[in-house]
Amino acid sequence: MAAAIAADPRTFHSLPGYHGGYVALWCTLPALLLLGLWQLFEPMWLRSHVLGSLPEALRLLPDDQLGLIYNDIRNLVEGNVVSSEPGTDMLAAAERYSALRDLSRNLASAAVLVLGIAALGWAFNRVRADFRARNRVEHAIEYLLVAASSVAILTTIGIFLSVLFEALRFFQQVSPLDFLFGLSWSPQTAIRPDQVGSSGAFGAVPLFAGTLLISGLAMLVAVPVGLMSAIYLSEYASRRFRAYAKPLLEILAGIPTVVYGYFAALTVGPILRAFGETVGLDVASESALGAGLVMGIMIIPFVSSLSDDVITAVPQALRDGSYGLGATRSETIRHVVLPAALPGIVGAVLLAVSRAIGETMIVVMAAGLSANLTANPFAAVTTVTVQVVTLLIGDQEFDSPKTLAAFALGLVLFLVTLALNVVALRVVRRYREQYE
Fold first, then answer.
1. Which end of the chain is more exposed for a tag (fewer CB within 10 A), N or C?
2. Ramachandran category for residue 190: left, alpha or beta (phi over 0 → left; psi -120 to 50 → alpha)
3. Could you tell me which residues come within 8 angstroms of residue 356 by beta carbon, excluding any fewer than 6 positions away?
4. Contact of 264 with 230, CB cutoff 8 Å
5. 277-293, pLDDT tens digit by residue?
6. Number of H helices, E strands in the chain
C-alpha cells in the first residue's frame, strides 16, 4: 500500500480520484445498509420485548387491543396524549421501552461506526498501482443508478397493487357494473340496517362526468392560451421581452391552489352569477364553469413553458429551409415548427390534463360537493378526487363500502391516466419517426 501511494501517478491504472471513490464507497455503503436493516427490524424487536414484559392478563388480550396499549406506551415515552390514565404496568413498560430504545440506538451507532472503520481499512489496503479502481467505481455507480431508477417503477407497482386490492374488496360488496354505469352517487351508509339510506348508492358516472366537464373547461382555457403564448414568446417576442414575460407567466404555477380556490369562490363565481342574471341564465354560485376557468388559468404555465422550450429547441435549419422556399413566418410556424415540436407539445398538454384531473381544492371551493349528472357548465358538480378526499376524512373503518369506494375511484382514475399516457405515446412515436 505504501509503495502504491509513493508510486508515480502515471503508472496507475486509474486516477487517484477513483481510488478515493472506491474507498469512500466501501466506507459508506455497508454502514448505510446495516443502518437501514437496523431501522427495519428495531420496531419489531422493541414491540416484542415491551409487550413481553407486560403482565399475563394484558398479553392475552386481542391483537388490536395490544396495539392500542403499545401506542399508549410509545405516547407516554414521547410525551404525547394517551387514551387513558396510565397504571403502574404501563409506566413500567414505558420505562422499559425508553431503556431498550436508547440501548438500540447506542448499539446501532457503535455497530455502524465499527463496520465503517473496518470497511475503510479493508478498502484502503487494496489500493495499488495496478488496481482497477475506475472499473469498480463505475460498476458501483451503475448499480446505484439502476436501483434509483427502479424506485419509481417499484413505487408505481406498489401504489397500483395497494389500490387494486382494496378496490377488489369494494367490488365484492358492490357490483362493478353498478359502480361503473350507475347514475346515482350517495355513499352514505347507515350503521344499522333499519336506518334510511343503509344500502347507499355507488354509481360513479356523475363523478366521472363532473371530472370530464371541469377538466375539459380547464383545457379549453389552458391549451389555446398556453400554446399561443409559447408561439409568441419563442417566435415573435424579443429576447428582452421574453426574459421578463416567461418568468412572470410561470409565477402562476407557484401560486397555492387554495389561493386559486378563494379567487374562484369570492371573485369569479359572483361575477359569473351576476353576468348570468343580466342575460337571463341561471348560474349557480358554485359552478363547473367557475372552477374550470380558474383551473385553466392555473395550468397555463404547464402548457406554455414546456411548449416554449420545445418550440425553441426546433433546429433553426428547418426554419431557414422553409424561408428559403418562400414560406412566410406564419406558414413556417404552422407547417414546419409546430409539427416538429408536436411530441413535446403533446407531452405538455398531457401533463396539464393530469394536473387538471388531480386538482381538488379549486373544485371544493368553486364547484361544490354535489354529485350531479349534468353537462351544464353553470350547475354545481364534483369530481373523483374531491370524493376520494371526502370519503377518507376522519377516522374510518376500512371494511365498509363507503370507505372502500375511494380506492375503487382511485383505481379507475389510475387506469384513465394510463390510457391517456398510452395515447400520447402513440402520437409522439408517430410524429417523432416522421421528423427525426
1. C
2. beta
3. 214, 215, 218, 219, 222, 295, 296, 299
4. no
5. 888 887 777 888 888 89
6. 19, 2
Query: Residue 338 is placed in which grid cell?
Result: 409546430
77 touches 94 (CB < 8 A): yes
| Residue whose entry in the numeric block shows the C-alpha cell 417566435 | 235
Helix (H/G/I), strand (E/B), else coil: 414? helix
- The grid cell for 61 is 388480550
Q: What is the pLDDT of residues 111-143, one digit of tens each?
A: 888 988 888 888 777 777 777 778 888 888 888
Looking only at Cα atoms, what is the longest distance across the chain? 94
Residue 270 makes CB contacts below 8 A (sequence gap 6+) with 285
pLDDT in tens, 16-35: 777 778 888 888 888 888 88
Instruction: Measure the N-to-C terminal CA separation of the chain; round to a whole number of Å.
Output: 53
User: Domain residues of the chain, as ranges?
Assistant: 12-142, 201-435
CA distance 367 to 261: 10
Residues of the chain with pLDDT under 50: 1-4, 6, 191, 195-197, 433
CATH class of 201-435: mainly alpha
